[in-house]
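Exercise: predict the structure of this protein bound to (2R)-2,3-dihydroxypropanoic acid.
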Amino acid sequence: MAKPKVYVTRMICDNGIKMLKDQGYDVKINPLDRVLTRKELLKNVKGIDALLCLLTDKIDGEIMDAAGKNLKIVANFAVGFDNLDLEAAKKRGIMATNTPQGSTEAVAEHAMGLLLASARRIVEADKFTRANKYKGWKPFLFIGEDVHDKTLGIIGLGRIGFAVAARALCFGLKIVYHDVVRNPEFEAKFGGKFMETSDLLKQSDFVTLHVPLMPSTRHLIGKKELALMKKSAYLINTSRGPVIDEKALVAALKKKQIAGAAIDVYEFEPKLSPGLAKLSNIILTPHIASATIETRRKMSEIAAQNIIETLSGKTPVHSLHK
Ligand code: DGY
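Solution:
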């Protein structure tokens, strides 16, 4: 019997690759350190049984058809899956999976890092010190804000929102949250108070976003929502860029309508909206919230496991099909 063919759209940690090779699969990896063009992707998927892809690959019906009738799974190397056309996969009987759990703690750590760096002006202060501008201690040098006793609004209480709350509690933050469903377990454990998004925006000193990108969450935070936030508040985004209307964010930060923002993801990734990089009241990181070696290894293992389970006729634990 022919070996199942697996195509990996970009080099990932070798532990997952080894798992696939140990199964005797014929594993091919894009050798280039860049996203494949559409044309290259269409060509490379021909005849494969499994596709291990990244959030930078748009996988739709055309790619699935180019792969052909053997394609059984599209395994996304990310927790977010807005790059996959799930309907197209379902229609063709193709499994689709993601890598939840893999990145929960790392993303929560990064969100907290952005929150702390915003409140305590760490990035600005670092630039200042490197530029040899520090000429001695001053009572008001880089005056920031306390984090303890402030209110953190968490929008989206999935695994990552939960993990952020656990950390925030240790920093003495009070927690309010919004999700499509109330979570009594969370309320009991963290003292988190459920509220509608508009109330959360009005009451929070820090707002952190942890929703998946879906039609209902695109531009969840726009002009109207930014206007509800406190003038002293900070907005943190480690979810997906289009959850924020970036043009509206630039305008709000320019007017100092909110104190600041710290974002890891962009509406037109990897492009930044005009004016974003010129603002001094925003911290920008290049979609690295999950970028720790331990997390990348876990993601590699989970993606490989999803493929192995599917190719051995099982329903993988991380199936995205409802
Ligand atoms: C994810 O997993 O969706 C992150 O955005 C990238 O690891």
